[in-house]
Amino acid sequence: MALTGLDIFKQLPKTNCKECGQPTCLAFAMQLASGKTSLDKCPHVSDAAKEVLDSASAPPVALVTIGKGEKELQLGNETVLFRHDKRFEHPTGIAVSVHDTDSDIAGKVQSINKLVFDRVGQIHKVNLVAVKNTSGDAVKFAEAVKTVQDNADFALLLASEDAAAMEKALEIAGANAPLICGANAANYDAMLALAKKYDAPLVVKGADLNELAALVEKAGYKKLILDSGAREVNKVLADQTQIRRQALKKFRPFGYPTITFADNEDPIQAVVDAGVYIAKYAGIVVLNTADPADVLPLITLRLNIYTDPQKPIAVESKLYEVGNPGPDAPVFVTTNFSLTYFCVQGDVEAGRFPAYIMPVDTDGISVLTGWAAGKFTPEKITEMLNSCGIADKVSHRKVIIPGGVAVLSGKLNEMSGWEVLVGPRESAGIPSFIKQRWGA
Amino acid sequence: MAVTIAKEKWTSKVGEMVLGADSSVNVGGESTLPFLQFEGAIPNKPVLALEVWDLEPEDWPEILKAPFAGVLADPVAWAKKNVEYGADVVSLRLMSAHPDFKNASPEECAATAKAVAEAVNVPLIIIGCGVEEKDAAVLEKVGEALAGKSCLIGCATEKNYKTITATAMVNGHSVIASTPLDINLSKQLNILMTEMNLPANRIAIDPLVGALGYGIEYAYSIMERSRIGALMGDKMLAMPVICFVGQEAWKAKEAKSTDEESPEWGAQERRSILWEVLTTTTFAQAGGSIFVLRHPESVKQVKVHLDKMMESNVY
Ligand code: B12
Ligand code: SF4
To answer: Which of A84, A366, A401, A437 to mutate to test the pocket of ligand 1 (most atoms within 8 A of CB)?
Structure first.
């Protein structure tokens, strides 16, 4: 909800003093509305007007940063309710918990550090380690925070509702802007003071939406993450939806990222609940599991939901080598949709057989979509065979195409002169295909 | 500080479909976005089907075959097993009709379908082998053999919808209308089918979903847009959506790769079930109403989740 030039004009001094470089206040207002100048160019706006204009021009969900340097995580700046309307901006931060009562905290952190997955040529990982003050003991909590900080590849979330314990923990970790989790109606002033002292982001938890709004109003602090207090998945969904809707309507107390907790006692249901939170607006989801079998599906879901719907992720269309392919290495044809390309690349690697992969430019769409859309054609494959230099690299003239587009083989053979081998439908079949069909 | 709950004022709702004759199951009828009870009614829980093939599946991973040991070559026994495992609906896939496999005749398929229908007391979904002309011929006979059973038959495409729609109308079935991830194509097929006088509440939309990691986001957004269209009054989008999750999820490398092949991905059993479950529950959030699954453990887990999601969240 951007302000119009007239809305802005109403807040200006209307003296037309020209100090902003514009002939009139109205002209300045118009420039400001179209984003061509900034409010600080006018030395005469009142503080009250500044407040109104700043908050009106701020994004519906504030940008909040957790951690520092390489471990930094940014959340917020969201502008839509549905990804098809634009796109979701900052992927849900995934936090994995350790308890200060755990016996081998360093070991657990090591296993969390390993939650890093390579998908479609990008690295995807969890983002935070949540240290929980399960013992209720301040010293134990501080020790745990120290161990985690010394070992973790990620920023920290400090979970304790005891302000004294939090104070001790912040003496250790405070300089790195950890997420303080957090403030509630009972410990409010003390937690808020700590957050301000360390300039660190703070989770504010209400017993319900009403209390949450009241606490946020009272804060006078902008580095906030919202917790509506709901823990059952059906209620969390409702609250997450409300918070996002209200934020988009510029109900200011809800204009911050949220945090959710996948605390379901059933470990599979906890993962399922986390999936709902990732799809439905959570800024952060805190998991109690570090099992890659649980985390990989969630990280994949996050990648999918947060992909820009207007732009499929594509790889450059050029000749790729796997291993050190020689003149008798096989040549695989595929498309430049990165999911497709990396499926093929991964499976060729799994076959431990050096090879060439030639992803044809289909504007980043899959094999069957590309074929159905006329972008993965014998003409295009032939053109790439001729132009990418493969003919000089291999001594044979055999090319392997995906099983799903077997129908292309006749025409491709005719146009290119290359012998066409039809590969398996799924790239997972490539290793056994090579063994059987590419006699080394 | 009192927060005014933000509610959308939707003007319409998703049509309600009845599956099965004796013990029937209702699908659809929502007058809000998925599980937002604070805003509208969600009269029916999404429906879970387990698949049966009339041909022993060869490339299913061991983890998927294990729960059906001994019945994979016997569709009747397999169907009964599915009911034991808690499926609301049994989805019979007539794979044997495929010219590359047995090329079974429509009559043979009809006999199988009839045997399965007599063996179980839950509604049936009957799917052809995916070859469009063959499916039309097969479903014509199957539809006749199961007259009055109110099955959901498919998949009807722009090429074969006429025969399938006609069969469904004569014999009292509903039809799955498949279009590849395109809201306009979907609407268009629904219009063509209703113009043949098939009531709109006897069509289920199949958007040809992809699995988690393999195009889930496209189907997710198409489904969200369809649901919003339906709630805003577009009758040709106001059909329950069916998602063939099992076939997609179990194709994914993450489901198929064994513990030895991918130790860094955790145990295959847990990972593969979660792949099917999360694909399903994510589509439930986008507006899916009928889910065709493969593993009984997935059905169990999705059920627990849906029961929870059906509890009220009215403020
Ligand atoms: C997501 C999707 C889309 C997205 C595109 C996303 C993208 N970036 O590609 C959108 C919504 C844009 C789309 C549009 C269309 N789609 Co589409 N779409 C799909 C969907 C659901 C998933 C595709 C996908 O991402 N697969 C995952 C990738 C990794 O698969 P892949 O590229 O095939 O790669 C695998 C194999 O081919 C093999 N492989 C790949 N390369 C190689 C190489 C070798 C050598 C070997 C051996 C193996 C191999 O291994 C890979 C992993 O197993 C499929 C249905 C489905 N469930 O598969 C339909 C599907 C591909 N679409 C289809 C169609 C018809 C279309 C449209 C033409 C329809 C329309 N709506 O107008 C349009 C065309 C778009 C255009 N004009 O640009 C049809 C194609 C039918 C056919 N057989 O011809 C499908 C199959 C749906 C269906 N069942 O009808 N689609
Ligand atoms: S500097 Fe401020 S007061 Fe002066 S003309 Fe510009 S907008 Fe008006």
So the answer is: A366
